[in-house]
Amino acid sequence: MTGKVAGRLPTKIIPRIAPAIPPTRSAATVARNMPPDASPSPDQTSPPQVPILELLGVFFRLGLLAIGGGVQAFMYRDLVEVKRWIDDKAYITGLAIAQVLPGANPVNVALYFGLKLRGGLGATVAVFGMVVPAFCIILTMGYAYRQLAHFPATHFILLGVAAVGVSATLSMGAKIATKLDRDWMTILIALVTFGAVGVLRLPMVPVVLVVVPVSILLFYVMERRRAG
Amino acid sequence: MLDSRLIGLILVFAPLSLLSFGGGQAIVADIQYQTVEVQKWLTNSEFVDMFALSRAAPGPSTLISALIGWQVDGFQGALVAALAMYIPSSAVVYFAASWWQRSQASPLRIAIERGLAPVAIGLVFAGVVAVVQAAKMDALALATLAVCTLILYFTKFSSYRLLFIVAAVYGALVYFAMAGHGAG
């Protein structure tokens, strides 16, 4: 399996199997893109800077193709699993912050990770790549819709597409859930949130406004108790 | 110069942008009220069509603003409405994320990180339930969902390729169903 992936993506696989190998082509590209006076980030695990065109390519493809409501899950597959720019914990933190703040989640997540990977330029490129292709497509679809809406096939195919979107979300959720801390509080808060919004169908915004502060407070008290 | 219709679009969408907690779903009702009842830019059934379209298209569902803008004032209307929808909320996210990514490790930062993660994961699974119910998935769609989840969980198969394959298979199914119906 590793051989197959390495054959397709030769430069991406090198850091994983041999982290100590000195400069390769990809490492040289990273070094060239690094500003000489880059201030050290407080985030010790922050990845090396990624080429801006590659960043644009990833988000452009997301904006163009990620249909069916699974944009964040497609993004997870690209950023975490394929490119390995972001780790699971950083991804779920970004996802949470994007959800808590106002704005379309996919755009907020793109902005968050664009900013994390390449600063203000990265954020601009990520949002641009995410919105511009989708903007053009939706106007085209709006133009064609009155013809397409009469075909029952349109709805049927869209249902299949939605199933893929949901499956991407489900798979991402399962993968991240297995990598979270296994303490009872994490599990409890996840279950309470899911139960309130997913089962009881309470509106998301009030639930988040209550659960988020309570959750942060509980972890803060736990953290202080451990420290003190 | 901005004409009154463009200013109207900005006045409707820019405040809603700052209220769109949780994304487009939170403000759909307000968009409907503002554009159909108050401004009378479109009829209710036009709004429902645009809503369905914004869910089916790639990208964020808040792009419904672009469709409404197009209806009101053509391409410039679509552009202005989309910008009014994205610039205010993106500015908020930009400053919050900059601050967050720059802040030093502290007990509060750790608590925020650990406290947000389970809420986010709970919402991810709640979103799955919501879409499955809203889309009224039949047995075929649920089977597709199960198979695709297993593929994406256990293999490195490209999610885009999977999307195209499923769309092609569904297209073929419709084609043969219609061909069979025509012959029989």
Describe it for me?
The complex is a heterodimer of chains A (228) and B (184). Chain A folds into 2 domains: 11-17 and 47-180, no CATH class; 181-228. In chain A, 77% of the residues lie in helices and 0% in strands. Chain A has helices spanning 2-8, 10-17, 25-33, 52-65, 71-82, 88-100, 105-148, 152-179, 184-199, 204-227. Chain A is globular and about 65 Å long. Chain B is mostly helical. Chain B folds into 3 domains: 1-102, no CATH class; 107-136; 137-184. In chain B, 80% of the residues lie in helices and 0% in strands. Chain B has helices spanning 4-19, 28-38, 44-56, 64-102, 107-134, 139-154, 159-183. The radius of gyration of chain B is 21 Å and the shape is flat. The termini of chain B are far apart.
Strand content of chain A: under 5%
Instruction: Please mark out the parts of chain B with pLDDT under 50 across 5 or more consecutive residues, or reply none.
Output: none
The rounded distance between the terminal residues' Cα atoms of chain A is 47 Å
Q: What is the typical, i.e. mean, pLDDT of chain A?
A: 78
Largest sheet of chain A: none
| Radius of gyration computed on alpha carbons of chain A | 20 Å
Number of separate helices of chain A: 10
Q: What letter string, H or E per element, gives the SSE order of chain A? A: HHHHHHHHHH
Broad shape of chain B? flat
Radius of gyration of chain B, CA atoms, in whole angstroms: 21 Å
Structural class of chain A: mainly alpha
Give the count of structural domains of chain A: 2
Helix content of chain B: over 70%
The largest contact between protein chains, plus residue counts on each side, is: A-B, 112 and 98 residues
Oligomeric description of these chains? heterodimer
Largest sheet of chain B: none
